[in-house]
Amino acid sequence: MRFESHGVAALSLSRLSARCWQRLLWPGPARIPGALPARSLSSMAASIRFSPAARSLFDEPLGIAVQGLGPRQQVTLRASLRDEAGELFEAHGRYQAADDGELDLARCPALPGGSFSGLEPMGLLWALQPRKPFWRLVKKDVQTPFRLQLEVLEGHGDPPGQLLAQAEHERLFLRDGVRRVPVREGRIRATLFLPPGNGPFPGIIDLYGTGGGLPEYRACLLANYGFAVLALAFYGYEDLPKEMKEFHLEYFEEAINYMLKHTQVKGPGVGLLGFSKGGDLCLSMASFLKGITATAVINGSVANVGAINKSGIADIIDVLNNPLEGPNRRSFIPLEKAECRFLFIVGQDDHNWKSEFFAVEGSKHLQAHGKEKPEIVSSMHLLVGKPVMWGGEPKAHSEAQRDAWQQIQAFFHRHLNGKPSGTTNKL
């Protein structure tokens, strides 16, 4: 079956971008209760302490402290990491140690002049910026960690002074015991992530957007929390179509049946999680196929074209085809046919498309057909072949992203597992 579709998506905290699920570096207070010291230069009095000490999950808060400084000593903390292509990402913060010579980022605010300021325990992570323009931090091999390098430098000069301490910390994507299983069954091209234990586990199919390929980092992070997650490719990967011209529902139906028949997957239905173009594919799957219990959509995509602003960067938000008018109406997904619960997450400063507008229209459509109102959470492209305006602000982006991540897990636990959400956030 061939189909056309437009995405409906929708959390509202602040100005957030459509890039919401390309970077996963959360802020979060994490004190240092006697954590073990990380590796530092043996000849230096200062030492860096992380909590957890040497390794942590990529979506886990990381505590950072420096000990052995002089009373109220001024220092610069510089964080860096290289991605798998060797591109460098950096951030720095200017600090002053406490009277006892300790610098705990959970208690000491960053001073003006660095990549961020104020009390930001994880600012050195969410503020990381690439040296290469328009480069994004994306993890391709989830079996290897990102290695975060941290340096403590004397003073607030530009450049700062003498190196006082340095340490390395690994940010992991797979919790111990999580299994990664490549899937090449029938037409399916995917990777299945299974939590430790015998299961069965609540199942989720994870779809990405117009970039194609087989991104695995979100699927494996979800598997860390007890879900069996199938990261599903649908174009631009191995023997799948090279271009995004048309999609056939039978392919996605085959993936649903694969999950429902798997001995490690708990029925009677599965969940769907889609970002960008994967979002409207998930909405189409939920509307036309059986066996789906819960569907979460992040900044669902619509057909679009690009315009160019004065800087040569595409800003495509106002040049989208409206699926509610004229001949495009046929691409509006018949959500009323779905037999599942919906969660829509949108970025209010999304410069790819009007995510919030389409989410609200989708909600109206469902309610007009007697369906339950979906959860809508507002948070703050390869398609056009050039850099695009994403929108958003790094600090607000990271805060809303962390909240959205908790909301997604709670949504699937609630509707696939029958368990309480474990979060008190109510938006």
Overview of this structure, please?
This protein has helices at 123-126, 217-223, 249-261, 277-288, 355-368, 394-417, and strands at 47-51, 55-57, 63-67, 74-82, 88-96, 103-104, 129-130, 146-154, 163-172, 179-185, 188-194, 201-207, 228-232, 265-275, 292-298, 341-347, 375-379. It is an alpha/beta fold. Strand 10 (179-185) and strand 11 (188-194) form a beta hairpin. The relative contact order is 0.18. Residues 59-185 form the Acyl-CoA thioester hydrolase/bile acid-CoA amino acid N-acetyltransferase domain. Keywords: Fatty acid metabolism, Lipid metabolism. This is Acyl-CoA thioesterase 4. Pfam families: BAAT_C, Bile_Hydr_Trans.
Detail the topology: elements first, then pairings.
Blueprint lengths: L46 E5 L3 E3 L5 E5 L6 E9 L5 E9 L6 E2 L18 H4 L2 E2 L15 E9 L8 E10 L6 E7 L2 E7 L6 E7 L9 H7 L4 E5 L16 H13 L3 E11 L1 H12 L3 E7 L42 E7 L7 H14 L6 E5 L14 H24 L10
Parallel strand pairs: 2-9, 12-13, 12-14, 14-15, 15-16, 16-17
Antiparallel strand pairs: 1-3, 3-6, 4-5, 4-8, 5-7, 8-9, 10-11, 11-13
